[in-house]
Amino acid sequence: MRGTPVSIKVSDYVLQRLREWDVDHVFAYAGDGINGLLAAWGRSDNKPKFVQSRHEEMSAFEAVGYAKFSGKVGVCAATSGPGAIHLLNGLYDAKLDHVPVVAIVGQTNRSAMGGSYQQEVDLLSLYKDVASEYCEMVTVPEQLPNVIDRAMRTAYAKRTVTAVIIPADVQELDYSAPTHAFKMVPSSLGLTHSAPVPPTAELTRAAEVLDAGEKVAILIGQGRAAPAPRWRRSPTCSAPGWPRPCSARTRCRTICRM
Description:
alpha/beta
């Protein structure tokens, strides 16, 4: 007789999806707004590794430094209210330096929103500028994995900051897969949409998109994370700091390819 399938929580699925995106470190500071995620780290054998800083602001700066020197997206996490506010300095550093960083932020319970709950902050408005390319609040489990995938893809493709806000009670809900064919490719990139397939599927094609007059080549996987970009220097590129992926191409308009 088969046993009853063990359901996983939204918080468990968030960490699972980050692992599928090859995220191996999350820089964070504990708080009750992300208690669900903290419990999930205990169940996941600390994968991706939880790196606790002395302060939420330092968590964001650590994610920025990691992204600059690894070429991968840096991920940071913080609780709601003041914790989310403290992330801003580091996130603005990432945005202005064209560094891909994803912020995962807790929020008060959905039932308490709009009631002047303790330390309640309108995070969508707060992050509207720093995460202008993509900032979304998860209100039902079915929004995953679409929200995580779009946040990661946008950070990689546009080398910028994105944010995912997850209320505390949503973190504790049982995860259920989407029942509709969500479009897994960010529409903001102007790419052809495709129906999702399992995240283990192989990358199938490469696409070039026009972004503010510059061509950026990104690998598009159907439902799977694209690996960190490996840029090949253009013969006309004179930017310093090579072979690390350089942000100078956003200024000199050099077309670099993978």
